[in-house]
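Q: Predict the assembly, please.
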Amino acid sequence: MGKDNRSTEEKIFRAAMTEFIDKGRHGARMQEIADRAEINKAMLHYYFRNKEQLYSHVFQTVFLKVFGSLHHLFEQEMPFSVSLRLFIDGYIDLIKSNPKIPAFIMRELSEGGEVIRALIPRLVKAEQFMLPGLFMRRAGEAMEKGEIRRVDPLQLLMTVIGAGVYFFLAEPMVKGVMETTGAYDRERFLQERKKHIYDIIINGIKS
Amino acid sequence: MGKDNRSTEEKIFRAAMTEFIDKGRHGARMQEIADRAEINKAMLHYYFRNKEQLYSHVFQTVFLKVFGSLHHLFEQEMPFSVSLRLFIDGYIDLIKSNPKIPAFIMRELSEGGEVIRALIPRLVKAEQFMLPGLFMRRAGEAMEKGEIRRVDPLQLLMTVIGAGVYFFLAEPMVKGVMETTGAYDRERFLQERKKHIYDIIINGIKS
DNA sequence: GTCTATATCTCGATAGAC
DNA sequence: GTCTATCGAGATATAGAC
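A: Predicted assembly structure:
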């Protein structure tokens, strides 16, 4: 019994995740979610009261997937440059496996985001959103030690993430530009992208 | 007569721009546009056949506002570092005056963007979207001269733009994080942001 | 718990008078 | 060119049988 409940609920949830990530909060269709989950539309309302709540659950899960998974790199004892390299690689690989997630989160942010505004303080308190804090601490320590020169750690974090995420947001433009000159090899470009970002940043902050 | 036409048409267009930028293609409401323009809803269809066409016009205008205005900095004769500095400052100031534009463009990109996909090749041909080309050329020349070291110019452009635009996309998160520690001074943060990005990049690419 | 059938609502679009 | 009134599609949500 319990197992069947979870099973149906989870089928719905997975289907909702796919649909919301793909079409966004407003573009998503409850019917489409029901079809994907291979259940009736009425069940969506049985398990999750309404679209808004379903979305809210999905968003929280997706947000944690991205921001709850790589902070450990800044907890471990290794040179800051190594953490940074691993973070950039890991971050780009993570998004590569879920390329629509950045736009999904950005859409929420751009809509004023009651959902995300309520979420962030809660996650920070619950220590599930530790990346900014840990990154800034480790960067600060690296500056103390003279490993890297002094810059504002929060600014640095934004530069790293911004540079990393932008490609996935702007890919259609990049593609459009590159195809005017030659072939567009996504896989290769992404590998280069990792190297490039690390290269620029590490040279930008070395003592 | 002609003047009255333009006047009403323009009122509609301005109202549509505000509404679409704020709510996006699907979130925008024709009724709201009509209200803002202080005309009847039927007039929207009289001047612009339907919502899609109205959106399309708006998007093109907005896109050009952002990408059609700063490329001249890379046409002029000055050291690459100076062009870069002016570009970063100008870019951030431009978005600061229109902070919702990045999310607006990103939303279009994320929705598969028939509109933008049709637009880009056309603008490139019409020489109204010259930023990537000019930037890459000037960066290439600067590398030849030894002003800066060799990096992939397109990767570099993406890093600059990504770093610049990310703040405006993620501001609610930044705000949330900063408010847990202290006060959040947007104006100051943005001025710092300009300096920081230039600083990291220019050190990242110097010979 | 799951389904069918349907109520209710929102919104883009149009018809037609002036 | 501009308005009022209304249509009709498409979506969320619910009632009620099983």
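Chain B has ten helices and no strands. Chain B has a mean pLDDT of 94.
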